[in-house]
Structures are given as C-alpha cells and as structure tokens.
Write a sequence for this structure.
C-alpha cells in the first residue's frame, strides 16, 4: 500500500517547481526534488512538535491550515496539502485561502483518505450542504466540530449513542484537544466541491491530473491549477469516479473481510 502511495506522489512531484508551501507535513514531508524552496506550515508550535514528533522540521509558518494572514496573495508557485483537508473545520474556506496564496497558474496538490478504505468506512460521506454550513457558521471551531467528534465516537470508536462511555470519551477528547477527521469523502465528492467553488465563489481551479483510489491503497489525489476553464474535464472525471463506485464498494468489503483496511495517515 505504501509503495502505491509513494509512486503516485513521486509522479505528481515532477510537476511542482519553484517556491512552494507544504501544509501539515510534520515528520513525513513529500519529496520535492524540482522545487527551489519549500516552506512548511503547521498548527503545532516547535516545542509541541519536538515532544510529539521528534526529529521533525519546525514550521516556517504557524497556521491552522485555514488562515494565512501573514502570507501575501499570489506568493507560492505550488501548495501541497496531503491528508489535511479532512481535518480542517472549514474545507471551503481552506480551499479559498490556498487559492489566494497561489500565484496565477500555481498548482495545488491534495491527497485525501478514501473513507471506503479506512476506519471512516461506517461514516456518511460529508454532503456539500454540510460544508456550506461549516463555512458560514459564526460558532467557534471547537463547537462546530462537536458533531464531527460525536460521529467519530459512534462510528469509529464504536461507542453507543447516549451511553455514559461515549460522553466520558467525548469529555476526555475535549480536554486534550481532539484532532479527528471532521469530514469524509470519496473522489467524486471532492471534485463536486471544487466545481462548487468555481460556481459559488468564483474560485477557479483547473484539473491537471487526478488518481482515484487504488484497490491496494487508501487515498485519492488531485493536482489542480489556479485558473479558469476546464469544467468539461472536471465533470468527466467526476462521472468516471461515479461509474467506478460499485467496484470500490466490492473491493472495500473484500479488503475489510481480509483485514486489509488501514488507518489513513495524518499527514504527507
């Protein structure tokens, strides 16, 4: 499985040149041999990284991955966010911000866990309406993420709704500052989201390359270019992903029966 992921990411890395930003890499940064400079961003402070991920590079930019207030518009030639978007509170806002800090024609590479092949398999795919609610809510992030945490408790931890065990687990997670997958998707959902950004917010990304989840892997990949046009290719990719859905449903059941489903990685 790791060999599949690594091979795909190496193919995508050849497109990423110039000055870029990688978000949430921690101790597993993506090899970017053609880049002239790569800055790193993370929410954790250097002392937290040393304690939790010893040996990892300290971030150049401290950010929650959704806001880069100190970064000028059009700064980077590329942005990499592997296994990041599912963790943020507001995916729509994050994608709008990543679009802002890219130069015109800049590239965004995102890799995301496929819910069918990870511990998220029992959870419902996050609908676009839910993402809109998260984007427009005035509630603080931790409160907005309460429903995500409860869903995780029920469908990943297997705790019974309304039980004392579930409420105790929730209380402990609030105390330590939880970090779960707030949203879960398959490829066609994220393609729909990118198309929605263009139609609703005039945030244009063109689809350069994409990979649906390998039957031996657990992530899908999108390489997007900041710019207008390319709606036809985006729609075609979404249709192809939808056509492949029955195959993935069967494959995920087989892998689950064989004990082959693995957790999704936290970062790149």
């Amino acid at each position: 499985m790791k060999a599949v992921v690594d091979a795909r990411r190496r193919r995508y890395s050849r497109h990423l040149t110039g000055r870029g930003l990688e978000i949430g890499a921690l101790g597993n940064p993506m090899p970017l041999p053609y880049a002239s400079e790569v800055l790193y961003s993370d929410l954790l402070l250097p002392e937290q990284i040393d304690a939790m991920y010893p040996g990892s590079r300290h971030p150049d930019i401290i950010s929650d991955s959704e806001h880069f207030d100190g970064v000028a518009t059009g700064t980077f030639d590329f942005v990499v966010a592997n296994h990041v978007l599912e963790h943020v509170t507001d995916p729509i806002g994050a994608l709008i911000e990543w679009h802002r800090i890219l130069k015109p024609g800049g590239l965004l590479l995102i890799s995301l866990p496929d819910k069918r092949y990870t511990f998220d398999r029992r959870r419902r795919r996050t609908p676009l309406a839910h993402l809109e609610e998260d984007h427009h809510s005035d509630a603080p992030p931790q409160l907005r993420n309460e429903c995500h945490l409860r869903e995780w408790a029920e469908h990943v931890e297997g705790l019974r709704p309304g039980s004392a065990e579930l409420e105790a687990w929730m209380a402990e997670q609030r105390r330590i500052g939880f970090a779960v997958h707030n949203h879960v998707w398959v490829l066609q959902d994220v393609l729909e989201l990118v198309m929605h950004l263009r139609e609703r917010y005039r945030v244009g990304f063109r689809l350069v390359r994409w990979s649906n989840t390998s039957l031996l892997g657990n992530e899908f990949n999108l390489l997007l270019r900041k710019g207008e046009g390319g709606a036809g290719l985006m729609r075609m990719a979404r249709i192809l992903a939808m056509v492949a859905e029955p195959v993935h449903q069967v494959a995920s059941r087989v892998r689950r029966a064989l004990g082959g489903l693995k957790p999704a990685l936290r970062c790149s």
The chain has two domains: 2-115+183-257, 128-176.
